[in-house]
Amino acid sequence: MFDIDDVAHAASRALPGHVWDFIDGGSGGESTLAANRTALSGICLVPRALTGVTRGDCAGEMLGSPVSAPLAVAPMAYQRLVHPDGELALARAARSAGVVYVASMLSSHTVEEIAGVGAETWFQLYWLRDRARTGELIERAEAAGCRALVLTVDVPRMGRRLRDMRNAFALPGTVTAANLETSAADGRGSTAHAARPGASAVTAHTAETLDPTLSWADLAWIRARTGLPLIIKGIMDPGDGTRAVDAGADAIVVSNHGGRQLDGALPSISALPGVVRAVDDRCPVLMDGGIRSGADVLKALALGATGVLVGRPALWGLAAGGQDGASAALRLLHTELEEAMALAGCGDLTAARQLPVRTTAGARVTDEGTAR
Asked: Which cofactors are named for this entry (predicted)?
């Protein structure tokens, strides 16, 4: 596997069609899914010459923890769908790569099992209808040794994922939301496992489990509940970025949920500079959505991101070859980022964040400079 496209092709061959559609698809007509890639492709880096740089040093930190590269594995649900070892294998790959692993609330292994792998682990939360249960999950994440909480705020309801509806997608009985189920038997009886023609069982499960009324007022409850750093994921509007920091966010993730929520939403990379300017160095700003190469990571850094979350590429690696496949995918991104930095004349991440970029619109090129 020489690039992430090779990883994707290997994963597509390894998975049943309905599972591939579940992890690869977006919402609606998948215009935002495609736009994430188109927007990244339309950004051009301006390399600097005669810098004397022989290699790009990717090492840095994320929320105070050292990392080999400014990467985190994004929170993704039900990873045992694509490999029997699921989240444990991907967390081991993240540990081996020296990058952050973000454990989904809807993981198919418990947060205790995942954190026990020893990776730098953050725990992702949705706002549950049962607030007491949300509090219990926060306590479990703290006790397990998670280093941060990531609250996803862009799922008041799940977007219409047409591939899953056409496939009448449901989880197999062997895959459960382990953090929410008291036993495997309970999981087999949940809504997520009840296939219905023309519907996604996972969407039905989400509707009955998550509280769509999450608002700014609720952030104060979470902020008061934990001393862990609080990261707000799903911010696209600059005003929302400012408000998130005012509400106690320690970091922000600019994200359109990988094109799986509002179809027609702005590409994440296009929203990034405005949020960075609005936040004005008051907290780190990360992004996800469409990252497929080390050059994409460098583009995000040049536009002001502290780091990026990588979703599908890591999951494709897991599907293609378990821990080894996931490690290969993360290694590819690290190698490509190091090479892109060296070729652009950036010896370290500080230089990478000062690299000029241009954006293309058809044959027209506009000067975007940097986000600061």
From this structure: FMN
What pLDDT digit, counting tens, does each position of 235-275 carry? 999 999 999 999 999 999 999 999 999 999 999 999 999 99
CA–CA dist 109, 175 (Å, integer): 9
**Separation between Cα atoms, residue 170 and residue 180, nearest integer Å:** 17
Backbone angles phi, psi at 155, to 5 degrees: -130, 65
Give the span between the Cα atoms of 226 and 138, in whole angstroms.
7
Contact 231, 255 (CB under 8 A): no
What is the distance between the alpha carbons of residues 284 and 282, in angstroms, rounded to a whole number? Answer: 7
pLDDT, tens only, 309-326: 999 999 999 999 999 999
pTM above 0.90, yes or no: yes
Structural contact between residues 259 and 289, judged by C-beta atoms closer than 8 angstroms? yes
Alpha-carbon distance of 350 to 266, in angstroms, equals 27
What's the domain range around 232? 4-369
Distance CA 291, CA 37 (A): 8
Our answer to whether residue 334 is catalytic in this structure is no
* Residue 367 vs residues 39, 87, 353: alpha-carbon distances, Å: 15, 42, 16
**For residue 45, what is the domain's CATH number?**
3.20.20.70
How many structural domains are present in the chain?
Answer: 1
Give the number of C-alpha atoms closer than 13 A to the C-alpha of residue 300, restricted to the C-beta side. 32
Indicate which residue of 109, 193, 257, 334 is catalytic.
Answer: 257
